[in-house]
Amino acid sequence: GTADIGVTGLAVMGSNLARNFARHGYTVAVHNRSYGKTEKLVAEHGDDGTFVPSESVEDFVASLSKPRVAVIMVKAGAGTDAVIDQLAEHMEPGDIIVDAGNAHFPDTIRRENALREKGLHFVGSGVSGGEEGALNGPSIMPGGTRESYDRLGPMLEDISAKVDGVPCCTYIGPDGAGHFVKMVHNGIEYADMQLIAEAYDLLRHGLGASAAEIGDIFEEWNAGDLESFLIEISAEVLKHTDPQTGKAFVDIILDRAEQKGTGRWTVQNALDLGVPVTGIAEATFARALSGSVPQREAARGTLPAHAGKWDVTDRDAFIEDVRLALYASKVVAYSQGFDQITAASEENGWGIDRGAMARIWRGGCIIRARFLNRITEAYERTPELPLLLADEFFTDVMDKGVTAWRSIVSQAALNGVPTPVFASSLSYYDGIRAERLPAALIQGQRDFFGAHTYQRVDAEGTFHTLWSADRSEEKQA
Ligand code: NDP
């Protein structure tokens, strides 16, 4: 075969990815379970470059130059396993199968193991940026072997988004590392979206501002530290008017946030690792709360509020306080996400370069933002940084913002406005910086009811107090 790379699964994501490769001068083998989509791609977009269409998997594999590289872009789950089996049947040792769909990383680890036994390279790759990104430059997070990246990497870097000429694609680490990092990216996205929504709600309640006015405020914010794709599109959504009713578009949308599951995966994994990702968790639960229809109905108008009435005297100062609180909460959410990446990388021996991670998220993906440069710089300054928040740039952000943050969270509480991520991020912040935590009492309780033992601040070893006897202390062996 002569094709440089193949793409199988030609729904919207796959065909855009294939077109992106073709536009970069690669000869692209294309295949889809039902041939219609293949024909359609070639008929409508043949002038993007050179496509080699195949009706059967066998012909598709045969059309690829060796070592072969086939990218799977099908519905995640059973479909992916089916396609992997079909490809593997016709491939030879040294060939590379890339799953660019949204697989859950434990599935990727399993698939990589199975294919390694056959001498095939399996690359689980996160791809972020939706349809638009797939066509014009996504952020790409490929896992798998280093060896496979030598062959595959240059092509992926070529088609990825670029920021300051630097590709938004880098080798992430073995087996599930790529899909893992994509999962945490999506978790962070949940937190970021919820934070922006809370900022909007605070401005609405605090100022009585209209959606469009808040859209203008966000547009201004987008010229500063908070510059990001999510702030930019939030401004656009808020300024949009519903053509049918003439009302603010955001006011005619049902207030129930849906989810496809990557936030949930992130939180489940964080619980397994024991990493506090309160921002992502609260954001995921906030979506669940919004969808708790019978509970909301039972509570609405029933639960007493005894809330104050918001009285903002200095409009500009209030807006700036919300901005600072948003920025501080956002830093916490990212710092937590990077803690999760650190923990998983250690547990799985992935050796993930955290600074590089922030670098490839600067473009192409949904959380792309100016602020990610700061994260890259922090890990460049201190590669072993134990806590992103503790980097000098971010301590300075906290120094400038924490007073406003306390003010906003307390005002929101007094006035009955929910701020799950603003408030929990502040609690996390105060917890992580605390001299001493009440965790000491938890240990006392655990030792009392379950003889779970404790350690002392003034002596080595593990101890238990004989609570139901004379309350003397025993040192454990
Ligand atoms: P879909 O997830 O809707 O999947 C449709 C494609 O999967 C079709 O090509 C279909 O073939 C194929 N397919 C489904 N089941 C099988 C099977 N058993 N055997 C062979 N082929 C099968 O397509 P999308 O383009 O929306 O998404 C593709 C992947 O990309 C998914 O994993 C999705 O999660 C991910 N994605 C990523 C996004 C991102 O931003 N990174 C955004 C959207 C999706 P047929 O035409 O024959 O039915």
Automatic annotation (TrEMBL):
GO biological process: D-gluconate metabolic process; pentose-phosphate shunt
Catalytic activity from the UniProt record: 6-phospho-D-gluconate + NADP(+) = D-ribulose 5-phosphate + CO2 + NADPH
Active-site residues, Swiss-Prot/TrEMBL: 182 (proton acceptor), 189 (proton donor)
Pathway: Carbohydrate degradation; pentose phosphate pathway; D-ribulose 5-phosphate from D-glucose 6-phosphate (oxidative stage): step 3/3
Keyword terms of this UniProt record: Gluconate utilization, NADP, Oxidoreductase, Pentose shunt
EC number of this enzyme: 1.1.1.44
Domain 6-phosphogluconate dehydrogenase C-terminal intervals: 178-468
Residues at which substrate binds: 102, 128-130, 185-186, 190, 260, 287, 446, 452
Annotated positions binding NADP(+): 9-14, 32-34, 74-76, 102
Top-level taxon in the UniProt lineage: Bacteria
Single GO molecular function: phosphogluconate dehydrogenase (decarboxylating) activity
UniProt-listed PROSITE patterns: 6PGD
Pfam families: 6PGD (PF00393), NAD_binding_2 (PF03446)
Keyword Protein biosynthesis: no
Family that this chain belongs to: Belongs to the 6-phosphogluconate dehydrogenase family.
Its job: Catalyzes the oxidative decarboxylation of 6-phosphogluconate to ribulose 5-phosphate and CO(2), with concomitant reduction of NADP to NADPH.
Subunit structure: Homodimer.
Protein name: 6-phosphogluconate dehydrogenase, decarboxylating
Annotated organism of origin: Georgenia subflava
